[in-house]
Amino acid sequence: MKIILTHEVSGLGAAGDVVDVKDGYARNYLVPRGFAIRWTKGGEKDVAQIRRARKIHEIATIEQANEIKAQLEGTKVRLAVRSGDAGRLFGSVTPADIAAAIKTAGGPEVDKRRVELGSPIKTLGSHQVSVRLHPEVAAKLGVEVVAA
């Protein structure tokens, strides 16, 4: 099935790309979650608009990505969350929480979709998080989760 991506999907493409995927993957995962729309001749007009929006938000060069990486790796991120007696959190820390904490700590603004968690953060303490800035550049960031 031919689809137009509306968001970046790792391993598949970036927003505005027209790709061929298996019917079930498109019907059951990509389209319902809003990551893609079905390709039509009329939808081809939307591709230009999606690409313009992507250019505004994307990091254009590797040098620019490396500058942001240096800023991120120099930022100390502390995140205060509610937790129980044993240090387990009520819920978990989401990529949106981490992106907001980076901004409040004085770091650069990061899109929540670029924050990659290895596994869900459900305990207090130090955790490593990866931020994919560019297809070739990723920043490792230490996040300190403390009780609120």
From TrEMBL:
InterPro entries with a match to the protein in the record: Ribosomal_bL9, Ribosomal_bL9/RNase_H1_N, Ribosomal_bL9_bac/chp, Ribosomal_bL9_C, Ribosomal_bL9_C_sf, Ribosomal_bL9_N, Ribosomal_bL9_N_sf
GO-annotated cellular components: ribosome
Keywords associated with the record: Ribonucleoprotein, Ribosomal protein, RNA-binding, rRNA-binding
Start and end residues of each Ribosomal protein L9 domain: 13-40
Top-rank taxon: Bacteria
PANTHER family xrefs: 50S RIBOSOMAL PROTEIN L9 (PTHR21368)
HAMAP family named in the record: Ribosomal_bL9
Family assignment from sequence similarity: Belongs to the bacterial ribosomal protein bL9 family.
Primary role: Binds to the 23S rRNA.
The name this protein goes by in its record: Large ribosomal subunit protein bL9
Source species of the chain: Streptomyces roseicoloratus
Source taxonomy: Bacteria, Bacillati, Actinomycetota, Actinomycetes, Kitasatosporales
